[in-house]
Amino acid sequence: MSLWTPSGEHEVGGRPDPAQPDDRRQPPGAGGGHDGGDPGGPGPDDLDVDSLRRQLAEAPADVVVANHCYGLFELAAVYLSDSPPRIENARLAIDALGFLVDGLGERLGEAHPALRDALAQIRLAFVQISAAQDEGRPRQDGAAGGSSPEGSAG
């Protein structure tokens, strides 16, 4: 699990985040600062969670929420760039981003215009990638093209 602060993201104890790519996860004891003691125990270089919480509390909420929006954008991009694209996972990340950006609007502060543009770009990419993926699928009625339910007659 990671905690965002104005100085960046920091790993803290707990379960691994399933949304985080495997190459960024570290098993217990793999981080620096352990002196050969308990591999799962804290080492001298481990982060002080109370200090991180204080830093987070000092950050303006619009900055923290905007950071989460950028994370949702990145998550959607990862799903869309997968081979084959993971369309339903991307759709959920894009919808979540849309709810935040469209719903909060100007409350996101100076990040709002950039987030609005990013949302438009990822939505366009989603439409293009899902359309390209649908072109290769046979329709349910046997005709070539998309897989819309309207094409299936019972």
Structural descriptors:
154 residues, mainly alpha, two-stranded antiparallel ribbon, 4 helices
Describe this structure in words.
The protein has 154 residues and is mostly helical. It folds into 2 domains: 2-58, no CATH class; 61-135. 47% of the residues lie in helices and 5% in strands. The protein has a two-stranded antiparallel ribbon. Strand 1 and strand 2 (8-11) form a beta hairpin. The chain starts with a strand and ends in a 19-residue tail after the last helix.
Helix content: 40-55%
Assign the structural class, choosing from mainly alpha, mainly beta, alpha/beta, alpha+beta, or little secondary structure: mainly alpha
What is Rg?
A: 21 Å
The number of distinct β-strands equals: 2
Average pLDDT score:
75
The number of helical runs is 4
Strand content: 5-15%
Bulk shape: elongated
**Main sheet strand line-up:** 1-2
The end-to-end span amounts to 48 Å
Contiguous low-pLDDT stretches (5 residues minimum) are: 12-36, 141-154
Give the total of domains. 2
Reconstruct the topology from this structure:
Elements: E1 2-5, E2 8-11, H1 49-58, H2 61-81, H3 87-104, H4 112-135
Antiparallel strand pairs: 1-2
Helix pairs in contact: 2-3, 2-4, 3-4
Concise overview:
The protein is mostly helical.
